[in-house]
Design brief:
Blueprint (H helix, E strand, L loop, with lengths): L2 H4 L16 H10 L10 E6 L2 H10 L5 H4 L2 E8 L1 H9 L9 H24 L3 E5 L1 H4 L1 H8 L5 E10 L13 H4 L10 H13 L1 H10 L4 H9 L2 H17 L8
Antiparallel strand pairs: 1-2, 2-4, 3-4
Helix pairs in contact: 2-6, 3-8
The site of flavin mononucleotide has 11 residues, from strand 3.
């Protein structure tokens, strides 16, 4: 196995220089070699290098500075627009205006994005995903001019790293793998799986800064709150409606 996978770390500071010629093409080729449902390739990748459009994306991505710094911004979209157009032009009736079709296309798009991420790292570049792609999907649609049946699901910034952060922790492999069938977790199991994460010096520091009792409280109370989750869920469902992916009844 290539060391690239095991050495992955998200990069949030980038050199301003553009990618060497050929790099982006290789990354995009790798992205399109990902498996896709029925080999339909129901996704699109928007490559943004233009400074003005990157500035608009930066605003939409909660002003995360790596969006301005990284020379390349990739937005992976679930896309049944192209496939449906092809069907109509070939005397076939496309039935891809429903939630399952969105999910199918979203899975295709995300698999392509991870191929791109690994290919970029293989080239010596750094990447970072941006969850704001879905939180602020309506803005991405406006900025990137996405038609109906196209919805952003993942964004990646790509460029030369200007930092070398340490590897982040992971739960133990046995904490996330189930042998043969799912085995639900009991309290000692949860304690064991989260022990290392909860004991990290960075975690203890976070608890002190935030004056919270547990790391879980930082997730539920500050980073990913119920209120925000519900707000952005509603916004995303509206986007699916607006983009024509919510016709679920006969
Ligand atoms: C779907 C997704 C969305 C993410 N969104 C952001 C983001 O908006 N900002 C950010 O700084 N990192 C973001 N990340 C990076 C994660 O924080 C990072 O992958 C995680 O902390 C593990 O660190 P590592 O990638 O360095 O191993 C995102 C990662 C994923 C997979």
């Amino acid at each position: 196995m290539s060391d690239t996978i095991l050495n992955h770390r998200s990069i949030r500071k980038f050199e301003p220089r553009p990618l060497q010629p050929g790099m982006l093409d290789r990354i995009l080729s790798a992205a399109t070699r990902a498996s896709t449902t029925g080999n339909m390739q129901v996704y699109s990748i928007i490559v943004t290098t233009d400074e003005e459009i990157r500035r608009q994306l930066w605003e939409a991505h909660f002003k995360q500075d790596m969006v301005l710094e990284a020379p390349v911004h990739l937005t992976f979209c679930a896309d049944f627009n192209r496939f449906s157009s092809w069907c109509k032009l070939r005397n076939a009736d496309p039935g891809y205006d429903n939630f399952l079709s969105f999910l199918t296309a979203a899975i295709d798009a995300v698999l392509a994005s991870q191929n791109a991420a690994l290919a970029a790292e293989e080239e010596g570049l750094g990447i970072c995903y941006l969850g704001t792609a879905t939180w602020m999907a309506a803005r991405m649609i406006d900025i990137l001019n996405l038609p109906k049946l196209v919805v952003p699901v993942a964004s990646l910034v790509v460029g030369y790293p200007a930092e070398n952060p340490p590897l982040t922790d992971r739960l133990p492999v046995d904490g996330v793998v189930h042998r043969e069938v799912y085995k639900d977790y009991d309290e000692p199991g949860i304690n064991h799986i989260y022990l290392e994460k909860e004991s990290l010096p960075d975690t203890l520091e976070l608890l002190k800064i935030n004056q919270t009792e547990t790391l879980a409280q930082i997730f539920t109370g500050k980073r990913y709150t119920r209120k925000d989750n519900r707000f952005f869920s509603r916004a995303f469902l509206e986007v699916l409606e607006r983009q024509g992916f919510m016709i679920n009844n006969d």
